Every structure is written in C-alpha cells, then in structure tokens.
TrEMBL record:
Known catalytic reactions: a phosphate monoester + H2O = an alcohol + phosphate
Protein's name according to its UniProt entry: Lysosomal acid phosphatase
Any one Gene Ontology molecular-function term assigned to this protein's record: acid phosphatase activity
Family: Belongs to the histidine acid phosphatase family.
SUPFAM superfamilies the UniProt entry points to: Phosphoglycerate mutase-like (SSF53254)
Stored CDD domains: HP_HAP_like
Record-annotated membrane-spanning stretches: 15-36
InterPro entries (UniProt xref): Acid_Pase_AS (IPR033379), His_Pase_clade-2 (IPR000560), His_PPase_superfam (IPR029033), Histidine_acid_phosphatase (IPR050645)
Keywords associated with the record: Membrane, Transmembrane, Transmembrane helix
C-alpha cells in the first residue's frame, strides 16, 4: 500500500493530464487557466509535519557490576525512568514546537489534526505526554480544571515484540524486538567486517582496562556503548565517576556512537531497521498531496530512543553525527507550492538541544529546495516493500 501511494503520487501528473485531455476532447465545459500562468511569488505553505523525538533525561537502564552508585536513592522510581529534569525538558520542547507551529497548528487539540505513536517504553510514553502538555495546553471549553493546565491526549503504542507489524497498513518501527533473521545476519556480518575487526583490535587494551575496573565483560564496541550509557546518565546527575571512567570518558563516548552507528552500517541494516518508519513518513506525505488521508492530519509525532534518531539520520544519508541528546528531534516539513504551481517540497530539520531552534539539514542527493518527487526517489531504496518477507533468509 505505501508503494502504491508513492507510485500514484510520482505519476499523478500523467494521470491528471490524461484526464484533462479527455475533458478537452469531449468538450466538457471550459478548463480554468490556473496552472500554466505566470509563476506566483507567494510563499509556500506548510501542510504536514512529522517529528521523531528522543525521550527525556532518565535514570540508568542498568548498572555495571562495580558501580558505586547502584544503591543510590536517586533510583527510587526505578531503572530507565524519566527524571525531573527529563520531564521539564520534554514539556519545554513541546512549548518550543508550539511556538514554531503556532500559526500552523490549531490552538485547540483535535484528533483530526494530530496522531501520536510511542515506543512501548514508560519513558517514551511519558515523554510524549509531556511534549503534548507543552504543545496543547487546554484552552476555552477544553479547560476541565482551572488548577491544572493540562488535558489528556491519546498516545498510541503496541507491545515491543510486535513493534514492526502491519496493522491496518501501518508500518511502525521504534524498537527492534520482533525477530528479523536477515537483519541479524547482516548485523553479524557488520561486526565481522574489516572496519569493526580493526576497531576492536586497536581498542583491545582499552577493553581489558574497562573490564578490569567495571567488572563488565568488554569484547566489542556495543559492550562499551552499554557501559558508557550508564556512566553518561550518572555524570549528568552530577554523581562522581570513578577515576578510570573519567580518564577514558571521551573515548568511550566516541565508541558508544560507533556502537549505535553499527546497527545501521549497511544499506540492508538501514532498510530493515529505519526503513519502516521512513516508509510511514513518506506514505503520509504522498497521501497528503493526493488527498487520500482519511483524516487530514497536520502532525505525526513519534516518541522513541537515541537509536531511532541515529538510525533514521544515517538512513537519510547523515552518517557523521554527534550522539543525540535527550529530547533530540528529527523534523520533516512538507510544503505546498505557491498557488499549487510546481511540486511540493520537503524540509528536513534537526534539534539536538532543547534550548535552541531546529536547524535545517540538507538532504544528501537532493537540491534545495528538495522536491517531494526527488525525496521519494532518494528514499525509495531504503524502504522495504514487505518487511516481514524481506526479513526471511
């Protein structure tokens, strides 16, 4: 279905011209002369936004064996839980996007305008709710309690073990849990390739050193990513790190990012890991232009993880990136041309700091502005036609 939608969009001009020719031949009425006049200088109009946002600051998801902070009272809410800082950050990011899209989104929340999907993780679900609290504070008749500037807005999810499943033609992917044998095989091949074999060899002494002090086995780059994940959280919470961790903190950060990048190191792993979410983004764009949306929505929000941010950026051609901060966001904006002349265009933006504004990102292989037609052409190789079938060996 997504491929059909994109086909209809890419061939819409031929279809429309054929219909126009039939009208002229049959002499049915007169055809308005609006599409072939002098090009207007009116500005383009924003018609659709899709946002992938990483959850807010959290507690560690695990501890290493020799972790001096494993019994801290800071973890009262459990592992992987949003912190107060994380909650405030996600609320502020919602307000930031309210400011950016205030003239585009209605002041009042409507399910006809907005759809929200989250990874089935408490921190992602809560982050989505906090984002929405900043984006859509209740106004007018939506105010249900004058002491609470908040209103409930639905956030959709599915269990992790089904999170790449075809439900009513939806292609959602925010957490790799459903088995994909072809992806697993391709990932093993990645770790066996020359780059990662050399990387592990060059860092073998560091791995031994980290294993000795942390008590955690260190055999390859993803082991470092897991250790750094915990150390980074503790550092952000102003906990004192052991001397051995401080000494190699920057190098571990570099290796941790390479670990995240390893998950989408080849075209095959990109297509199978980030392709389904990218498919949903381009499908919504195509349906918007063709007028095929059952509900003519303006915003799709996806709440996920750092691995989703890294994987999607790499799949879009941005492979030299920094480790995403909490609240980092990838934004797709679809613009309608002035007076409907010419093609729609796509703007890609990235927010990696809640105190800044989203910055434009060039779409590799596409001119500026990037037309929707070119965007579909560029992304097509990264979008699986049938994820379940492609996962088979």
């Amino acid at each position: 279905m997504p491929q059909l939608t994109q086909f209809l969009y890419l061939n819409r001009k031929g279809i429309l011209l054929g219909l126009l020719g039939a009208v002229l031949l049959l002499g049915i009425g007169s055809v308005p002369f609006f599409a072939f006049g002098e090009r207007s200088h009116a500005p383009e109009r924003l018609v659709l936004v899709s946002i992938l946002v990483r959850h807010g600051d959290r507690t560690p998801t695990s501890f290493y064996p020799n972790d001096p902070h494993r019994n801290s009272t800071l973890w009262a809410n459990g592992l992987g839980a949003l912190t107060k800082v994380g909650k405030q950050k996600m609320y502020e990011i919602g307000r930031l996007f309210r400011n950016r899209y205030n003239d585009f989104l209605s002041e009042k929340y409507s399910p006809n305008d907005v759809y929200v999907f989250s990874s089935d993780s408490d921190r992602c679900l809560m982050s989505a709710q906090l984002f929405l609290a900043g984006l859509f504070p209740p106004v007018g008749e939506q105010i249900w309690n004058r002491h609470i500037a908040w209103q409930p807005i639905p956030v959709h999810t599915i269990p992790r073990d089904l999170d790449k499943v075809d439900i009513t033609t939806r292609h959602l992917y925010l957490w790799i849990a459903k088995p994909c044998p072809k992806y697993s095989k391709a990932l093993n091949e990645t770790y066996s390739n020359e780059f990662f074999v050399r990387l592990n060899t060059e860092n073998a002494d560091l791995y031994k050193y980290l294993e000795k002090h942390s008590g955690k086995p260190m055999n390859y780059v993803m082991d470092v990513e897991g250790l750094f994940n915990t150390l980074e959280v503790e550092k952000l919470l102003n906990l004192k790190l052991p001397e051995w961790a401080e000494k190699h903190y920057d190098r571990m950060k570099e290796l941790a990012l390479l670990g995240l990048a390893s998950l989408t190191f080849t075209d095959t792993t990109k297509r199978l890991k980030a392709g389904p979410l990218l498919s949903e983004v381009v499908e919504h764009m195509s349906k918007k232009v063709l007028g095929l949306m059952k509900q003519d929505r303006k915003l799709y929000l996806y709440s996920g993880h750092d691995v989703n941010i890294v994987s999607l950026l790499r799949t879009l051609g941005h492979e030299e990136i920094e480790k995403p901060e909490y609240g980092a966001s990838i934004i797709f904006e679809l613009y309608r041309p002035a007076l409907n002349e010419g093609d729609h265009s796509v703007q890609l933006l990235y927010l990696n700091n809640s105190q800044s504004s989203p910055l434009p990102l060039r779409i590799p292989g596409c001119n500026e502005p990037c037309t929707l037609k070119d965007f579909l052409r560029i992304t097509k190789p990264m979008i699986p036609v049938n994820w379940e079938a492609e996962c088979l060996l």
